[in-house]
Amino acid sequence: MEETFRRSLYSELDDIDYGIVRALQENARLPFTTIAKELGVTEKTVRMRVQQMQDEGVLSLVGIVNPVKAGLNVQSFIQVAVEANKLDDVVATLNEIVEVRLIVLTTGDYQLIIQILVRNYEELAQFLMNKLNKVPGVTRVNVINELKILKSKYKFIR
């Protein structure tokens, strides 16, 4: 049953790719020789598969920064309503704002949800007044502050 579920959920990954991804999501610094030994393939196979998955955008090996440890103590999701025919312009502007970490197109009354990271509530206020509220095409916002992260999952493969 578990195998059937995995196959349907990750149908683009064969058994070797799946094994590589499982190993790397546990420890992205795991040597390819160790992964190869566990999977019964050569180190070259693992290296080539990782490169292929990276080239295809299936796999990214990145360091994850803890925002709080980096001094970014206020994290907010902001719903953004956008004027008709201004969506592309608003997204382009938001892409240039350093505090904006994530931009998501959504359904409903707000076309976008953005996530921002700032050091404190004063910086949040400055961001809202001096940046977001000055973006042409933004008609309404709803700020949702994160109080506590209860789950943060980077493991997508079981």
Automatic annotation (TrEMBL):
Single GO term (MF): sequence-specific DNA binding
Regions annotated as coiled coil: none
Pfam hit, one: AsnC_trans_reg
Keyword Zinc-finger: no
Keyword presence, Transcription regulation: yes
Keywords recorded for this protein, A-Z: DNA-binding, Transcription, Transcription regulation
Organism annotation: Brevibacillus panacihumi W25
Record domain HTH asnC-type: where: 13-73
InterPro entries per UniProt: AsnC-type_HTH_dom (IPR000485), Dimeric_a/b-barrel (IPR011008), HTH-Siroheme_Decarb (IPR050684), Tscrpt_reg_AsnC-like (IPR019888), Tscrpt_reg_AsnC/Lrp_C (IPR019887), WH-like_DNA-bd_sf (IPR036388), WH_DNA-bd_sf (IPR036390)
Name of the protein this chain belongs to: Transcriptional regulator
Source taxon at top rank: Bacteria
